[in-house]
Amino acid sequence: MQRFRFREPSIIPGFRVTFGFTIVYLLLIVIIPIIGLFLKTFELDWDGFVSIVTGPRFSAALRLSFGASLLAAAFNVVIGVMIAWVLVRYSFPGKRILDAIVDLPFALPTAVAGIALTALYSPAGWLGGLFAPFGIRIAYTSIGIWIALVFIGLPFVVRTVQPVLQDIDREIEEASATLGATRSQTVVKVILPTLLPSILTGFALAFARAVGEYGSVIFIAGNLPRQTEILPLLIVFRLSEYNYPAAAAIAAVMLTVSFVILLAINLIQAWSQRRFALV
Amino acid sequence: MSDTAFPQAAPRSALRQQSPISEAPYVKWTLIALTVGLLGLFLLVPLLVVFVEAFRLGFGEYLATFRNPDALSSIRLTLLVAALAVPCNLVFGVAAAWAIAKYRFPGRAFLISLIDLPFSVSPVVAGLIYVLILGANSTAGGFLLENFNLRIIFAVPGIVLATIFVTFPFVARELIPLMEEQGTGDEEAALSLGASGWQTFWYVTLPNVKWALLYGVLLCNARAMGEFGAVAVLSGKLRGETVTMPLQVELFYNEYLSVAAFSLASLLAGLALVTLVIKTWLERHFADQLASGGVGH
User: Fold this and answer.
1) Which of A82, A86, A125, B139 shows the smallest number of beta carbons within 10 Å?
2) A58 interface with B at CB cutoff 8 Å
3) ipTM strictly over 0.85?
4) Contact flag B99-A19 (C-beta cutoff 8 Å)
């Protein structure tokens, strides 16, 4: 008798237990709380929601969070591709240590990074002191926020581009050179297009991380409303005022952005599999 | 092979020509110098600052931090939270990897995306979602408080929950690609030879993935001990009770106790360095037994 099967048959035991446990765990830890957040937003009527997401303090924080994250992720693309290139293609003393240290922002707790960057870039700090005589302030301004976001986003582009670059067949570069391309033409027209999906993925990951980042930014940001206040900090403020619906509304906007970015990453990967499956 | 038969046919010119698939030396060394400079400036200097600031007033002041009762209780709480959150995520990671990698069913890709979700959610939002559904004035939170006298938000259980949320992808995403790659052949052989399901898991699957499991646990633990944003939102910051190490660093720092803040931070930075060393060692020695090309934490 043919019955509907949810999964393909397998002799390996334990599907029900592990699948059930996975689903229950995800429901309890992720799905129900996130649904709860969106339900909380509905406690506001439409006008209330609109007045929060168009208020001057919210729009200033939104512009700052997205603007600084965009600039930081773009900068990370430029230096990330270069760092990946150097780590894959060249050998020089100390390379292995540099390669390992790229992951530091993943391993270093964000609060530690935050106070270290603030100490470094404050007017009395090693690097802040170099700029202070010219009247340039880094800590407690949006430049400081940008630096913190570059710090935490740095590994993403390097670590997405590095394995792809490693796998590129050197023969396609030889072919390009044989056909008369100069080295820079080969790099721009042959290698970069192959790296493009991984660059875009790295960019999206770095951007998503930067938009949500809290720990490393709040120390160096100065946190002045409408000037150096990022979106996650605005949530914390609303929460400390017990204005839960407003906090939920801001969080719902941020979560929606996260979902869109996640979707974009998946689409990039699907596209690159179709486009570059043979590389 | 044929060209080795004529060794005398070596290049006539002593001038070395640049290979057509490499860059000119000045380009190469400029790029290396830029890389070293940028990584030094953006990563190594901030790390160095932590230790310099911690020892600014000498070794005695540094050690004095670790006699501070608040600092000690924050260290204890951080160890407790990691000891609770990491095993939960270890069990989840193994179960999820087993269900997703060893079977084929509709919605697998969606499930994998769902597991990755915490990486793209702001830590502050992660904390907030629990405050909203489990806070004292929510339905579930009020019920637990009244009937079991169990406080979750602004108490230790909330901190553990938030830590579980931000760290649960680490083990699963390390195991899933590896176990998918390994397939089910080994397990099928063990089962056909009469092993029970548990024996198959314990003697066949687990040894196959042990290094990847360690790798996932290592990253999970580093993040669990260092998490700031999610924990900050729902800890309530009751000194000596709900303050973890990163939160205590913030409290010291905001009280202008700079040396104390950096001394405690140096412990976390040390943890990060140990994590990086073990991670690099695992990648170097067991690269073939780890999932290839893992990214993003």
Assistant:
1) B139
2) no
3) yes
4) yes
